[in-house]
Fold this protein.
Amino acid sequence: MRVPDHRITHALLAALGEPLMSVTLIPVGDDLPMNDPEEIRERFGAHLDAIIDGGACHLDPTSVIDLRELPPKIIREGRGDITPFQV
């Protein structure tokens, strides 16, 4: 589960009233995720129904926390405050 801090994502969630699924776009052969909407449009626009251009996003990885058991296990520390999950 991602908890984004982005106004467009918050607006979409409010309008839909249900969760969204998202993935990180790392094309085959690339090492880094794509984060520029213009570049995504150029490479994949013909295969997509829509692109919401909110500008380029961060390349910093997010924190990953395993909540399947208690206490939570920090898998990867990155963007986002992990303090509430630390024991």
Summary: Helices lie at 7-16, 37-44. Residues 1-56 form one domain.
